[in-house]
Structures are given as C-alpha cells and as structure tokens.
Design brief:
- The complex is a heterodimer of chains A (about 200) and B (about 70).
- Chain A is mainly alpha-helical and about 200 residues long.
- Chain A has one domain.
- A two-stranded antiparallel ribbon of chain A has the order 1-2.
- In chain A, α1 packs across α4 and α2 packs parallel to α8.
- With about 70 residues, chain B is α+β, with helices and mostly antiparallel strands.
- The longest helix of chain B is centred in the N-terminal third of the chain and has 5 residues.
- The chains are: A mainly alpha (about 200), B alpha+beta (about 70).
- Chains A and B meet through α2, α3, α7 and α8 of A and α1 of B.
- Bound molecules: iron/sulfur cluster (3 copies).
- The site of one iron/sulfur cluster (SF4) has 14 residues of chain B, from α1.
Chain lengths: ~200, ~70
C-alpha cells in the first residue's frame, strides 16, 4: 500500500478471496479450502501470540480495502461507536460460534444418517438459495458436501455483511467486529496478559 | 506538533494503520493493540484516515498522553 516499497506476495491475497467464492460456485467441495482462513489465524495467535494473519495476509480485509478505497465503493464515514464496542464484538463472536456449531451439528446429522444432504446455501442464516449445480456427487460421503454448503454459507454471509458495512462506513469496518479478528485478539490478550501489555 | 495517539481499549489490532503509515511508526504489540512510536510519527494522519474503529487519532502532542 505504501509507495516506493517492495510489494510482498501476500498483499495480493484479496485475489484468493474472489477465487475462493468462484470455486465454490462450481464445486462446493472447494469450500473446505476456507478452513485455511480459519486455522491459520488461530495458529498465529496461539503459537505466535500475534495477529500476523490480520495484519498482513487476510484476503478478505484486503478485498474490502481494494473495493472500498481503490475502487471508491465506500462512503468512508466513521462507523457508529457500538460497532467496535466490546459487548458487540464478543456478542457477535458468540453468535457466530453458535452458528458454526449448528452447522457442524447439521453435518453430523448427515454423517449419522439422521439427515439428508441439502444442496442449498443459507444467506444471513435465514434465506435459502438453491445451489444444486455445485455438487453432483463425489468419491466423498455426503457429509463432506454438507459441511461444504454450510461453511460456504458462513463465508458468503460474513463477506456480504462486510461489503455492506464497507459501503456504508469505513472500508474495513468489518474488521472491527470480525469474529476471527475478535477471537485472535482475545487469544493474544490472554497470552500477553501474563506480561501486562497495557502497562 | 501533532502526533498519532491510539486508544488501546478500542483498538482491534487489525494492523491497517501500520500498513498505511509512511514512517513505519506503528507496531502491533503482541496482537493486542497498535503502538505509535512518537519519535517516528510525523502526524500525517494516514493511520486515522484508514482506521475502521476510530481508535487512532492525530492530536496535539502537548495535549495527548503518550
Ligand atoms: S479482522 Fe477479520 S477480516 Fe479483518 S483482517 Fe482480521 S481476519 Fe481478516
Ligand atoms: S500520523 Fe502518519 S506518521 Fe504518525 S503514526 Fe499515523 S500514519 Fe504514521
Ligand atoms: S487501524 Fe485502528 S483498530 Fe486497526 S490496529 Fe490501527 S488503531 Fe487499531
């Protein structure tokens, strides 16, 4: 982003975010690749005690910047104060994890045979969008695809929320309450707590 | 003289300010918050302009607690 500085490969990861959604449109099994964006930040936080993922290689954050700033799709207005408040951030994290748990449970139902594979994407945890073209069977059991549909729904929903707040407020407003961001900062704070970072 | 000051309680440590800063004056401390090195900061305001939470602000150095 700075002038006259060598660009690193990871500054282009916003392209990965677009590629990810495109792949999932054609085959839902690609949704599993999104687990990288889930596990990597946690590894950085738990092992390294840092937010290197957020700070340097999050494609989603970068995409909001590219669209919001470079392509002028953002009003660039300050967001309401409550959006970055602790109760909202941790509340949204709790909500998100609950929804993640529900999704894993649905996968389990298909795995155990109590449920059947539903080839649909659920947006905003409410609206069902048919997505049957993205799966026609594979060598994997049905639950693998079920997880794909569920995970893709989660990724798409959170990106759409991010795009809405990007348009309305600052480019990367999503980062103020992004569950991954909140979770990794929380872990880092716990880790650093012993050495009192606030001092 | 104007310098950037960060509200550590509000900061989400996203690191956008550090990416924007032309003087490399900002460091994300242990994934907890953005720390401004006031000896490097020139008060340009690029960090404030990008910050999604409004936690980092350029203020008059005399008034600002650093
Ligand atoms: S807060 Fe979320 S969207 Fe923002 S950089 Fe971190 S992981 Fe990416
Ligand atoms: S005001 Fe400018 S120089 Fe100072 S920390 Fe912010 S971006 Fe860096
Ligand atoms: S941009 Fe704002 S919220 Fe993000 S690390 Fe810098 S001061 Fe904190």
């Amino acid at each position: 982003m700075k002038k006259g500085r060598k660009k690193h490969w990871y500054e282009y990861l916003w392209i990965w975010t677009i590629v990810y959604f495109a792949l999932g449109f054609f085959n839902i099994l690609f949704a599993w690749l999104g687990m990288i964006d889930f596990i990597l930040p946690l590894i950085f936080a738990i092992v390294g005690g840092n937010k290197w993922f957020c700070n340097h290689m999050c494609g989603r954050g970068q995409l909001f910047w590219v669209l919001g700033r470079n392509m002028k799709c953002s009003r660039r207005k300050p967001s309401p104060k409550w959006i970055a408040s602790k109760w909202f951030r941790y509340g949204f994290l709790a909500f998100f994890l609950t929804m993640f748990g529900t999704m894993v449970f649905q996968t389990y139902l298909v795995f155990s045979g109590a449920g059947t594979l539903r080839k649909a994407i659920k947006l905003f945890w409410t609206f069902k969008v048919p997505w049957q073209w993205a799966y026609n069977g594979s060598v994997f059991p049905d639950w693998v695809a079920q997880f794909g549909f569920g995970f893709y729904s989660l990724m798409l929903t959170s990106t759409l929320i991010g795009l809405i707040v990007m348009a309305l407020y600052k480019e990367r407003t999503w980062c103020s309450f992004c569950p991954m961001g909140t979770m990794t900062q929380g872990i880092c704070k716990l880790k650093a707590g012993k050495t009192k970072p606030e001092a | 003289m104007r310098k950037a000051e960060n509200d550590r309680n509000r900061c989400v440590a996203c690191g956008l300010c550090a990416l924007r800063c032309p003087r490399e004056a900002i460091e994300i401390r242990k994934g907890c918050y953005a720390f401004v090195d006031i000896t490097k900061c020139v008060g340009c305001g690029l960090c404030e302009d990008a910050c999604p939470t409004g936690s980092i602000k350029v203020k008059e150095y005399e008034v600002a607690r650093v």
